[in-house]
Specification:
By secondary structure, the chain is of the alpha+beta class. It contains 4 helices and 17 strands. It binds 2-amino-4-trifluoromethylsulfanyl-butyric acid (MF3) and cobalt (II) ion (CO) (2 copies).
Length: 255
Amino acid sequence: MARTETIEILSSRELDKMRTAGRLAAELLAHLEPMVKPGVSTLELNDEAERWTKAHGATSAPLGYKGYPKSICTSVNEVICHGIPNAKEVLKDGDIINIDVTPLVDGYHGDTSKTFFVGTPSPLAKKLVEVTEKCLMLGIAEVKPGARTGDIGAAIQEYAEAMGFSVVRDFSGHGVHRVFHTAPEILHFGKRGTGKRFRAGMVFTIEPMINEGTWEAEVQADGWTALTKDRKLSAQFEHTVAVTEDGVEILTLLP
Ligand code: MF3
Ligand code: CO
Ligand code: CO
């Protein structure tokens, strides 16, 4: 469903706050990465993320957001997104796990995620994860003033499908600043030359979810966990980006 809010143009003061939030989000993911090993539960990852976020003077935006029960999302193997951390879900060799974090820092959100390998991946899992990360970077490369949201979707869809994978349709990137999810909606599929035009000062996420098999998703009874309909693998990477005068700045990179 298309978003109807106005697309905000952030001031340089607000962009600085987004840089601070984005950096903390990237640092949180880097802090969690060494914990991703066989035997760790997704709840342990959640609890460490919550502790670290508080220790850095921030809060976890997902916690309580529209009733979401935890501080991060942990999406393992066939889970597309919004997997809920759970003590009974213990990682094992060969799994892939997307960890999605959104610290809220001084009123601004930094939203980023990566898919990690647990131990040694299968060749197929390795290819899916590598293709998905490249999809994110190809999408980011389209961003500059005057380009359009559809240019991002087309670049991602063309590459993912050429590599034999499919693009999830039911979840999209989104504007992000003081508000967690707002305009513009960033579809990860579509046609060049369509959609909203970018202007310097817009900030949004690009977060392609790429599937091994069908793009169709199914949300579980918990109201959050989205699975692939065919239970094949899904991977995701996400950055928060700002449109600059001559291109794009990734806000969720490590310094
Ligand atoms: N961080 C997710 C995103 O990329 C949103 C999670 S909302 C939650 O947009 F409630 F599930 F946490
Ligand atoms: Co996210
Ligand atoms: Co997001």
